[in-house]
Structures are given as structure tokens and as C-alpha cells.
Design goal:
The longest helix is centred in the middle third of the chain and has 54 residues, at about 95-150. The two termini are about 45 Å apart. The protein folds into two domains: about 1-125; about 150-225. It is about 85% helix and about 0% strand. It is mostly helical.
């Protein structure tokens, strides 16, 4: 939040300084100078407003792509607009229409690049969230099984499940993750009730093993675009 306030303050100072310098410069007031001056102010507003926009965007999408892609594009666009406006002002050209066409061209190019990069940033953030969700679920499975392991004498079966889960793809969430979670919860309840020697205990372990294999198939199909 401090960075946003700082950017706003600096932006206001720069805009005020531009107005004062323009007034002290005593240019010949005509349509071309007015248009050039307006676009200089516009460039500064875009530059510092773009900084605020990128900071807000970075909180909702991929921060790296937002700042490195969208931020650099907006900054580059505003600098190009400011310099071209300054040159136009100093040159004293009367070709207002050509100048406006050039500015429209700059805007369209910059807008297209920003829109594409913002879309990429949003997609990257969605993908990162899914990976974090899948990783958290796998870690939760391992934690739950590790707690179960501490309460049983024969740890080999649980160790096998933990090992299988640990080497399962943790980059995506698949349908059978819910089934695995339910089965582990049932296994946890059986262990808490001290029914380790029951047939249901062994059956649940076998079912979890099958579900883990099923999970590996589903993750592979998802990565390959299969159903």
C-alpha cells in the first residue's frame, strides 16, 4: 500500500511540474501545442496509473508476468507517447491529424500486448493455484497416513501407501482424490477403534492402493489431454 501511495504522490508532482514547465516555456498557443501538451500529461497519467494497475493486477494474477510483462509494456508505451509528444511540441508541426493517427497506432499496439500478457498472467495464476492445491492434498494424504503408521505395529503396508502417494504426480487434482481422502478417513477411524486385525482394515489398504494407481492413470491422461 505504501508503494501505491508513493507512486500516486510522485505522479501528481510530475504532472504539476509538467504544467508549470509548460507555462514557463511560453509556447505559442495553437491546436498542435495544446494536443501535444495534453498527450504529455496523458503519458504521465498512463505511466503512474499503470503502476497502480499492475500492482492491483499482480495480486489477482501471476505477479512476475504482471510486473515484467504488463508493467514494462505500459511503461514503454507511456515513454514513447511522452517523447513523441515532446518532439511534436518542440518541432512545432501543424500536422495534428498525423500526430493523432500515430498516437492511436501506439495505443492499439500497447493495448493488444497488455491484453495478451494479462490473459497469460491470469492463466499462469490459475495453473499455479491448481498445482498448490494438488500438492497440499498429496501432503495431507501423507500426513494422515503417517499418523496412522504411528498407531499400528505392522508398518510395512502403510509405508507402501505413503511411498506410492509420495511419488504420485502432485501437479494436478483428479477425481479419485476425493475417494482416496474418504478411504484414508475410514482407515483412520478403524485404527482409532483398534480394529487393525479386521478384514476391513486390509480391504481398505488394498482399495487405497488401487485408487493410487487409478490416480496415476488419471493424472497421466489429464497431462496428455485424455479423458
Amino acid at each position: 500500500m505504501n508503494r501505491l501511495k508513493t507512486a500516486t504522490t510522485i505522479g501528481c508532482v510530475c504532472i504539476l511540474a509538467t504544467i508549470i514547465i509548460f507555462a514557463l516555456f511560453h509556447p505559442v498557443i495553437r491546436l498542435s501545442t495544446i494536443v501535444a501538451f495534453i498527450f504529455m500529461l496523458y503519458a504521465e497519467i498512463v505511466f503512474f496509473g499503470g503502476f497502480l494497475f499492475v500492482e492491483i493486477l499482480a495480486k489477482r494474477t501471476s505477479g512476475i508476468l504482471s510486473r515484467a510483462g504488463v508493467g514494462v509494456t505500459i511503461a514503454g508505451y507511456s515513454i514513447v507517447v511522452f517523447l513523441s509528444s515532446l518532439l511534436y511540441l518542440l518541432h512545432g508541426s501543424f500536422f495534428v491529424r498525423r500526430f493523432l493517427i500515430l498516437q492511436i497506432f501506439f495505443f492499439v499496439v500497447a493495448f493488444a500486448i497488455v491484453a495478451i500478457l494479462a490473459s497469460f498472467a491470469n492463466s499462469a495464476e490459475t495453473s499455479d493455484c491448481k498445482i498448490l492445491q494438488a500438492d497440499a492434498m498429496i501432503n495431507n494424504f501423507i500426513t494422515e497416513l503417517s499418523l496412522i503408521r504411528e498407531k499400528v505395529k505392522d508398518k510395512s503396508l502403510i509405508d507402501k501407501l505413503i511411498e506410492s502417494i509420495r511419488f504420485s504426480d502432485s501437479s494436478v487434482v483428479v477425481d479419485c482424490d476425493i475417494e482416496i481422502e474418504e478411504k484414508i478417513s475410514q482407515l483412520k477411524k478403524i485404527v482409532a477403534d483398534e480394529q487393525i486385525e479386521s478384514e476391513e482394515y486390509k480391504k481398505l489398504i488394498e482399495e487405497i492402493e488401487i485408487l493410487i494407481k487409478k490416480r496415476n492413470i488419471q493424472t497421466k491422461n489429464m497431462k496428455q489431454g485424455g479423458v
